[in-house]
Amino acid sequence: xxxxxxxxxxxxxxxxxxxxxxxxxxxxxxxxxxxxxxxxxxxxxxxxxxxxxxxxxxxxxxxxxxxxxxxxxxxxxxxxxxxxxxxxxxxxxxxxxxxxxxxxxxxxxxxxxxxxxxxxxxxxxxxxxxxxxxxxxxxxxxxxxxxxxxxxxxxxxxxxxxxxxxxxxxxxxxxxxxxxxxxxxxxxxxxxxxxxxxxxxxxxxxxxxxxxxxxxxxxxxxxxxxxxxxxxxxxxxxxxxxxxxxxxxxxxxxxxxxxxxxxxxxxxxxxxxxxxxxxxxxxxxxxxxxxxxxxxxxxxxxxxxxxxxxxxxxxxxxxxxxxxxxxxxxxxxxxxxxxxxxxxxxxxxxxxxxxxxxxxxxxxxxxxxxxxxxxxxxxxxxxxxxxxxxxxxxxxxxxxxxxxxxxxxxxxxxxxxxxxxxxxxxxxxxxxxxxxxxxxxxxxxxxxxxxxxxxxxxxxxxxxxxxxxxxxxxxxxxxxxxxxxxxxxxxxxxxxxxxxxx
Length: 502
Description:
Layout: H1 2-27, H2 29-40, H3 48-54, E1 60-69, H4 72-76, E2 83-103, E3 108-119, E4 132-136, H5 138-146, H6 153-165, E5 173-177, H7 178-183, H8 188-196, E6 219-222, E7 234-236, H9 249-252, E8 271-276, E9 281-293, E10 296-302, E11 329-330, E12 341-344, H10 353-357, H11 366-369, E13 372-375, E14 382-395, E15 398-399, E16 404-405, E17 411-423, H12 426-489
Antiparallel strand pairs: 1-2, 1-17, 2-3, 3-6, 4-5, 6-7, 8-9, 9-10, 10-13, 11-12, 12-14, 13-14, 14-17, 15-16
Helix pairs in contact: 1-12
């Protein structure tokens, strides 16, 4: 009995010594991989992270949609604007960083950046060079809107003289090609505005194209070295450590990343901050739901409606001068002319219904018009993103020395919206799976298999020992029975039969 008891203990101890570390590794496998990811999640010379940060493999496309005005004459008579949405007009966007300088023992990296747009004719509905759109004459609307802000009578007279001199070419509405509206056209009024505010370009354009950074506008971000939660966070943007536009220090802070990747180990209760350069402000995303991108489980983060509520509801927006309707971002502080420009989600999503009803032809849809990020929570990499914004200009009843627009309705006039999107291709998804998911899944399978085989070995060993013990006990019992039978009959314990008769 002692021999088999020792065998049981030996088998149990051996299996325990195999199962315990295997089980511990299995339980903490996610933490082990997280530690590896955190160690690798650093922008450093020659690394894959640096390569993807400088010029990401994931293609970024910008989809432009315009609101083609159907009733310009009636609008001037007081009717609601009626629109037909046209688009998309698609361009490939590339942002390439160069002149990298690592500072502070690799804690930060400083760089400049080129910004390019390349037409994608196969993705566009028409040729932007020839497709015409009727829309608001934005330069004229801006000048008419800011005339009251002019400090001197001379400035107001000068503006009215220019408007009067070119009145024939300056109707409240214009018909231009998509290319002109996007990338610029000459306008005498806007050229004059440039003289008053040199931050405005000499040509009017809704978008800047092919910006080569030869003006030493340096940016600086944290590399994540020593603290992976700081990966890619801005320290400086265009030579500024804080912005000069908004009402307080917090609003002027440059917080967050570019918005294309975040730190590893994303939690559902986090606020993910990003600096949105074409809005000149930081914002945050919150968890909305789980999602799947190319068969990869992701978290979907969105801009919460609360972020765009006016300052009577969201007091943080007092500093952003958001004192108008909910869902509108006031951009007038970006120029000393205070142009009446407002940004919103496309089709006035998350704005009051009265704003949607103030025009004809807009139908907000969350799936088509909301901004979101689908990111892999362990690595923090964004696998699918849509950043969507709409440009609006406030027009109001006004009677100037040149124009009688007193019949106009007060309208936040939608001009266009942009859908900047980056989506993981199937090829890049396979690469991501090989680098992140396959090793983790393979390790999980190996550990589970090891635990199962160890358990099978343990049970097999116990079964063999039990069988041998049972067999040994049966043999011992049989021997004792025979011995007892021999004593009771007085006969020798022999296998031979003794005959009754000789």
